[in-house]
Amino acid sequence: MPLTLTIDTVRWQRHQQRVAAEFPGLVPVCKGDGYGFGQDLLVRRAAGLNVPLLAVGTVREAEQALRLFRGDLMVLMPHQGGERFGPTSDRVIRVVASPFGHRGLRGRRVITELASSMRRHGVTPDELPAVRAAMGAWEFEGFSLHLPLRRHPAANGIEEVSAWMRRLARAGMPVRTMFVSHLSSQEMAALHTAFPGTAFRLRVGTRLWLGDPEATRYSSDVLAVTPLNDRRRSGWFGRRRTTRRFQVTAAGGISHGVGLKAPRTLQGTRERLRHVAGIGYASLNLHLSPFLWDGQRCRFAEPPHLMESVLLLHTEAPPQIGDEVRLSLRHTTTRLMP
Description:
- The longest helix is centred in the C-terminal third of the chain and has 16 residues, at 268-283.
- Helix content is 24%, strand content 26%.
- By secondary structure, the chain is of the alpha/beta class.
């Protein structure tokens, strides 16, 4: 059996229902690899939540989602002036993040992305007059503000959104709907109280699909176990192994996302020291793997292969062929195999 993702469906769906109840009007986000579940599965699940709007990453993802979702689709990737619009369906809404991004969208449904403290794409306060002048050419659906996931203690999500609400009011812009991200239910309630004429809708991805880590688990079958007690060379690169170790081959390789690692933001002295220690082990070709045996992370014997991984275990009780080993994988770098 290959590397397997097991979902406790009842628990997984119950968590989504709790999030939907906590954030009325939420907009589920289904993009990329579908947070490790595959986009089609998440689109079907979003349809089961009876939400009227779903956010996807690209035009191509919108084309796929139209088959499975009967509501509206927001394409998060900003439209670039002059590019192909994408699906002709009037259920597709494009995001515009610059005064000129609207070119080619005459008569289309549009959401205007505003610049936030992320310093990413978005219309700045100085660009509002140019946006206001062009608004009559499209069907305006609302504004969008993407806030940082981790905010500095001095930063205030409510104040950042409120500041934009005041700017838009001074510019004479209609603010019937504001799409936001990374806010708590208390912050959302405060915004609804402060601006009762505006519908604030939260885009939710990670919190919705991965908010209960106990609802999912990755596992792999052991394919081979070889004692390494004679210092013979082994593996693709013919390395000598130390004694009292076992070489274990397990299902799951780079085609599934094993060994793929996205950069992390390190916080605190302990995390930094662990990272430095990991660099030291890596210089000895002893990279940590996501596979776990007897509660411990195993090290790769060599870089993972396409469909399987070779591990080193320093133990008196190795697994046997056919045993199951657990994995700790990052969902957003894991790909569901057909």
